[in-house]
Every structure is written in C-alpha cells, then in structure tokens.
Amino acid sequence: MSRQCDICGKGTIFGNTVSKSKNRVRRSWKPNIQTIKTMVGGTVITVKVCARCLKSNKIVKYV
C-alpha cells in the first residue's frame, strides 16, 4: 500500500536529520494521507488524498 496522494501524487520524501555536531542520519517525511469516499462519475469510490488537496477543495467528500 503506497503512501501517495491520488490527486497530486505527493509521496514520501527522504533527507537527512542534521545534529548540532553535523552528524547526518537518513530519515523520511510522510504526507498526511486520508482515505475518503467521494463520488466520481456517479459511483462512490474510496481514494487516498493528502490533507492539502482535501483542504483546498480539489475533491469533495461523499457523506
């Protein structure tokens, strides 16, 4: 199961945690993915959407 937004494609990104002594340790940042039901083409489907897309009304929840 991928942690990726079905609308914008936002996914997990990787980088370094840098301490005060400049030691670098690999880490990851995961997006805030919500599983919601929405109506597309007259049918109700379940999609994984990031919080930014949900907040900006790129997709509408089906109640």
Q: What tags apply to this protein structure?
A:
63 residues; mainly beta; Ribosomal Protein L24e, Chain: T; two-stranded antiparallel ribbon; 1 helix; elongated
What can be said about this structure in brief?
With 63 residues, the protein is mainly beta. Helix content is 8%, strand content 44%. The longest helix has 5 residues, at 51-55.
Counting helices, strands and paired strands, the structural category is mainly beta
Domain tally: 1
Number of helices: 1
What does the average pLDDT come to? 94
Topology, number of strands: 4
Radius of gyration: 16 Å
Main sheet makeup: 2 strands, antiparallel
Q: What's the end-to-end separation, in Å? A: 25 Å
The CATH level-2 architecture is identified as Roll
**Regarding CATH, which class?**
Mainly Beta
CATH-defined fold name: Ribosomal Protein L24e, Chain: T
The main sheet orders its strands as 1-2
Oligomer: single chain
Proportion in β-strands:
35-45%
Poorly predicted regions are none
**Percent of residues in helical segments?**
under 10%
List the secondary-structure elements in sequence, H or E: EEEEH
CATH homologous superfamily classification: Ribosomal protein L28/L24
Overall 3D shape: elongated
What does this structure look like?
With about 60 residues, the chain is mainly beta. The chain has one domain (about 1-63): Ribosomal Protein L24e, Chain: T (Roll). Helix content is about 10%, strand content about 45%. It is built from one helix and four strands. The strands form two sheets. It has a two-stranded antiparallel sheet with strand order 1-2. A two-stranded antiparallel sheet has the order 3-4. The longest helix is centred in the last third of the chain and has 5 residues, at about 50-55. The chain is elongated and about 55 Å long. The protein starts with 12 loop residues before the first strand and ends in an 8-residue tail after the last helix. About 5% of the residues are buried.
